[in-house]
Amino acid sequence: DIIAGTSPRGKVFRIPAGGDKPEKIYESKSTYVWDLLPGPDGEILVALGNPAGVIRLRKGKFPETVMEPPSLHVTALARISEEEIAVGCAGPGIIYRVKNGLPTPVLTLRGDCDALVVSPDRHIWASSSDFIYHIFPDGKPKIHYLKYGPFPSLVNSSRGGVLAGGSGDGRIFQVTDDGQ
């Protein structure tokens, strides 16, 4: 099956692999579904905007609010561990760590969070406009300026660090753990 979110109507659908009719599994009061993150035992975390929130969907259970940040949008989700997620927000741009239902702000960005990924060694990487943020497990950040942003796509690189896909002229950059 495929799980899909809609914007601007804030709905989540399960689309069966066999091509059957999509099933609406969640309808939000929020306008936007910005991101979906699958989890253990088939759970799905939903990033919402206007108003912002993160909702946990579990089959056969009522939707559960994970967090409602003071931002306008939750734009990105990434799993740190089975018990912990990273949450990227816009309006204002803030990165949170959420563990056991407790959100902790980690870093305020210079703009909105465009993308978010967590490396296998639990480093958080985020992009905001022309900046790539590398947040170490101890919470200390390193900020990299790349004049070709924004970077709406971040993926882990097999060489360490991340690959950042730019939307300006389509460039892809590798940003390594040491900032090169």
Q: pLDDT average, as an integer?
A: 93
* Strand segment tally: 18
Strand content: over 45%
Order of adjacent strands in the largest pleated sheet: 4-5-6-7
Using the CA coordinates, give the radius of gyration.
16 Å
Which residue ranges are poorly predicted, with pLDDT under 50 across at least 5 consecutive positions? none
Give the number of helices: 0
3D architecture notes:
The structure is a single chain. With 180 residues, this protein is mainly beta. It has no helices and 18 strands. The strands form five sheets. A four-stranded antiparallel beta sheet has the order 4-5-6-7, with no helix packed on it. Strands 8-9-10-11 form a four-stranded antiparallel beta sheet, with no helix packed on it. A four-stranded antiparallel beta sheet has the order 12-13-14-15, with no helix packed on it. It is globular. The model has no long low-confidence stretch (mean pLDDT 93).
